[in-house]
Design a protein that fits this description.
With 595 residues, the protein is of the alpha/beta class. Helix content is 40%, strand content 20%. Helix 3 runs parallel beside helix 5, helix 17 (446-453) packs across helix 18 (455-472) and helix 18 (455-472) runs antiparallel to helix 19. It holds the Pfam family GGDEF.
Length: 595
Amino acid sequence: MTHDEKLHYQSLLDILATDSLTPLFQPIISMKDNKIYGYEGLIRGPSDGPLHSPINLFNAAAKYDRLAELDLLCRKVSIQRFGELNLNARLFINTIPEILLQKDYQHGHTLKYIKDSNLDASQVVIELTEQYPIEDYDLMASATKYYQDMGFSIAIDDLGAGYSGLRTWSEIKPDFVKIDRHFLNDIHNDINKQKFVQSIVDIAKGVDCKVIGEGIELRGEYLQANTMNIDYAQGFYFARPNSKPTELLDCSLFSSRKNNFKPKFNIERSDNTAAKLLFYVKPIYTHTKFYDIGERFQSSPELTALPVLNDDATVAGVIWRTEFLTIYASRYGKELNSKKNALSFLDIKALKVDITLSLNKISQHITSQNNLAQHDDFLITSSNRYKGMGKLLHLLKEITEMQITFARHMNPLSNLPGNVPISQRINHSIETQQDIVICYFDLDNFKPYNDTYGFGEGDKVLRKTAKLLTDSADTDIDFVGHVGGDDFIIIFQSSDWQHRCNSTLNNFSALTSEFYSQEHLLNGGISALDRNSEPVFYPLLSISIGALRPHDFGFFRSENDLVSIASNAKSAAKKIPGNSLYQIKPSKQLSNMSA
């Protein structure tokens, strides 16, 4: 056992022996009433010890097999302190599900702590926090039902961040579900997060479960959450955890304000087109007879629509099963229509999409119509020639999976696509041989700025840079991504990309005064010590842009080759003082513009 391990172990033993934990409480707000609904109990270890952080504390308890003891102690001190504060609200206390499943876990203590503190079980909500996968769902459901039968409510914490959140939700049937803070972070600027969260809210409404949005820190996040019928919210925007929590909130927190910045991101991939939805249905023709159409539908119970072609094999429209069989099966339907052909039953306005059209474009087209499609099937064509059919249900499934994937791989700081969607977009450009320009953006002198002003100010610079790049791009055709740290990328299809880059450099120069103190602005930079404790002068922040037009180099076979040359362009740009743009050429001739 190392010295640190001994220190952690002894500190843990002292905590368990002396109950030396401090409970903090953070308000949970009713979005309907704009009032405090409850408080989540949060735990801190001794402030002068190595286990002050709850992460260190629980890691130590898990390592030395004392999780059950620690869990019970956390519950004890939180309930006792909450009773002393005499708060007229509900108390949310955390527990790890695997603790409840241990055979020797002492379930009766919680009820005793509540009675001793003059509380009622109906005031307490037990939050299940998944740190480890649940293996026995039947036993877990039995354990939670035990608490519900005693009057406690159950919540699932951090939905979207655990091992099996949706399954836990369906098996446990909780009273509350808390959406992980990742999905609320900057949600007002991200349509994909909005759709993801809205789907969770809709599911919750259907199963009579209340939704709590965690981690709301910005006004825009609150305003967006408020429009989505989220029941409750929690985060620094309202109040930070405190040993003596607030009981009243500032009314100005709930005033309305619009937020106009809603970035869009082009994240198309070569395989995300109508071709992915294609299934083949043998077509009929406009001259096909009434009885032949009826025979097709009757012999194929799964057939919901028949594609109809003209004699030249172009698409004429669709005949819908329900409408046709209503006529076919009616008392006089056969007699009145027996001599008619497919033209008489044709829907010429049936939805028709080209096989190369992206799933996003199809979705936008459908939702932009005044009347949404009444049928699930649509036609897929190529140059108006029939290729097959697609279903809206399959489209919805694919779009949802794309949105979840996008949210999973999004940079949480900038709200921009991260490395996975960046790689997908570059590979799509290579596969389709698009005429694009790839621009790498790098913030010069960012590390000394971050070291001097702190991570908070550094993060503000990165967020402002992300917005600047998004504003400079045509996000219907251009792609903006965050590689990581202070590196960004734009994949331009805009022909005026050079003008857009120079505008970005000029706009960034105008922002510089917001980032620095007057002293550093007057000096033109920061004086600091390098890793060898030698004094070094770092100029003000600037942006270096390395640009590459793949068509200048012929056909690229791999993303690695393309990225390698683009990185060389960025390196060349960084050698130019101040804001700069450098376009690399096969002849290695300099194509440079400075802002």
